[in-house]
Amino acid sequence: MFGYACYTERFGGTLPGVKEHLDYLEDLGVTYLHLMPLLRPREGDNDGGYAVQDYRAVRPDLGTVDDLRDLATTLRSRGISLVVDLVLNHVAREHEWAVAARSGDPVHRGYFHIFPDRRLPDAYEQTLPEVFPEFAPGSFTYEPELDGWVWTTFNRWQWDLNWSNPAVLTEFVDIVLWLANLGVEVLRLDAIAFVWKRMGTNCQNQPEVHAITQVIRAVTRIVAPAVAFKAEAIVAPRDLVQYLGTGTHAGRVSDLAYHNSLMVQIWSMLATRSTALGRQALTALPPAPSTGTWITYVRCHDDIGWAIDDHDAAAVGVTGEGHRRFLADWYSGAAPGSWSDGLVFQANPVTGDRRISGTAASLAGLRERGSPAAADAALRRVFLAHAIAAAWGGVPVVWSGDELGQPNDPGWMEEEGHEADNRWAHRPRLDWTRAAQRDDMHTVAGRVFSGLARIARVRGSLPQLHASAPSQILPGTDNGVLATVRRHPSGLFVGLYNVTEQLRPFPLGWIHALGVNRPYEALGGYDLQVGADGILLLPPYGAWWVVERPDIGEPRTG
Ligand code: GLC
Q1: ∠ CA 462-264-153 to the nearest 5 degrees?
Q2: Backbone CA torsion sign across 10, 15, 20, 23
Q3: Which of 316, 445, 466, 536 could form a disulfide with 437 if both were Cys (CB 3.0 to 4.6 A apart)?
């Protein structure tokens, strides 16, 4: 599988409009299409559709329910799985359940967490982190019609549901089956980490979260067994793998989960030109259980939060706090020598956290008017980052526009409701003029598109990259190099990634010792050559996928 994520309106205008661009997606090698929230949201600001007013209607400007069914059917006929969001932590304030709760209906009041005064909210706030400290501080909103405070983790118009109420569970099971019947193949469980609240905790990753996922999945498996679930849990590294099922939940929760930690480490390695922390952090993480796999990505529609574990940082001689500060400085362009054009999202003066917005191209420093050498280095960083993600293990997902090297959208704040939310800078409309240049290697669009399409194509041809063979990190390499090994019955894979702008040596003997006799670089399509000293030289920001040389002449499958 090779994934692509976009907003329907920013990619194809409408759901029928997306159908006009399936050749484009096929050119890129896409087999998995995540269309961002498309069920009917509230009017006005709706957090990019994550404030759903009606789960059984499609956003009117995108089309109808029939259009959605039709698109899902067409995608299937072209070998593309449709992925849609299931926003289950909260509904829009305008959803009929919330409206009924405000009108005093006790049944629907029971769908939400409502408190008569500040006593319990204040107690919870003691340990609750701020999700949107700038534009939605606090986690509770006073609603006069409720005569009380309602739990609102995100914006004041996104009301958290009370998942301890079984009625909420059955409502959502019904919604899941309805979406499955339309042909949706993967459901992205939005903000799943937040669904269970417990006093004295950060109200994320509670054990009940996994029990709830298990119930929803069990029911779905009975009637629509091909539907897969994807956990959107952007949580600390040590809390991540549980979303793929561990302990009593093994094999019974989500099939897919975002590898947020890999994404953060990719950017960290590029900024520091060192793989020391990345090797430590990624080695410390348990591999994905065999029943599930990662969504690997370079960035998504959200900001990047610097999920650096303090213990990992300490193990390589830095502090978590200091390194997070460095990464925020680097990617906002504030650090001396930074090549990055990211934007600070939601600075939190209390914790010092500064998350970062930006497209892959802008984060990597690709500028329209930079020097050719600077542009070349940035393009190499973009390719390297995607090559690491695509060969890590799991389903790689490219964010719309990144395949053309699109920069941050300079007009991001012009749309109503977007003024305060610079995540819109990295959610640009797909630039179809650029897309038309995708075969022209003299253009940025052509270079990036052909690079990512090659990654998708070569990846699809290598059985070694099946998710069942997890990546292991080769210890003891030069700090400028990340070396990963995947052992699959069909053969060995060695990923070699140079995160610096200098040539880096790598002994050929190591590759032989691992068991690759005639090393072949699959991304470039050539045999690896060395001089008499037996040392390979990895080019600046080089990404090599090394496998046993395929026997030319012998037909290859896959
Ligand atoms: C998820 C979405 C994010 C949204 C939040 C609230 O994290 O990715 O965009 O703001 O949930 O729904």
Answers
A1: 120
A2: positive
A3: 445
Q: Which long-range contacts (CB under 8 A, 24 or more apart) does 429-433 make?
A: 429/10, 429/11, 430/6, 430/10, 430/11, 430/400, 430/401, 430/404, 430/406, 431/401, 431/404, 431/406
Quote the percentage of the chain above a pLDDT of 90: 94
Residue with tokens 């099946």: 466
555 vs 259, more confident: 259
CA 374 – CA 444 distance, rounded (Å): 13
Ligand 1 pocket, 154 CB below 6 A? Answer: yes
Residue bearing tokens 């939605």? 136
Q: What is the pLDDT of residues 148-169, one digit of tens each?
A: 999 999 999 999 999 999 999 9
Contact indicator for 230, 295 with CB cutoff of 8 Å: yes
Give the three-state DSSP class for 209.
helix
Domains of the chain (ranges, CATH numbers): 96-160 (3.90.400.10), 466-557 (2.60.40.1180)
Ligand 1 atom at shortest distance from the alpha carbon of 300: 8
CB count, 10 Å around CB of 200? 9
pLDDT band, residue 237 (cuts 50/70/90): confident
| Cα 356 → chain centroid | 14
pLDDT, tens digit, 9 for 90 and up, residues 447-457: 999 999 999 99
CA 207–ligand 1 middle distance (angstroms): 21
Contacts 24+ apart (CB under 8 A), 281-284: 281/237, 281/308, 281/309, 281/312, 282/471, 282/473, 283/473, 283/475, 284/237, 284/309, 284/311, 284/312
Residue 558: predicted pLDDT: 37
Q: Do 49 and 38 form a contact (C-beta atoms < 8 A)?
A: yes
Catalytic machinery residues: 190, 232
CA of 421 to the centre of ligand 1 (A): 12
DSSP characters over 130-159: PSBTTTB-SSEEEETTTTEEEE-SSSTTEE
DSSP 63-74: --HHHHHHHHHH
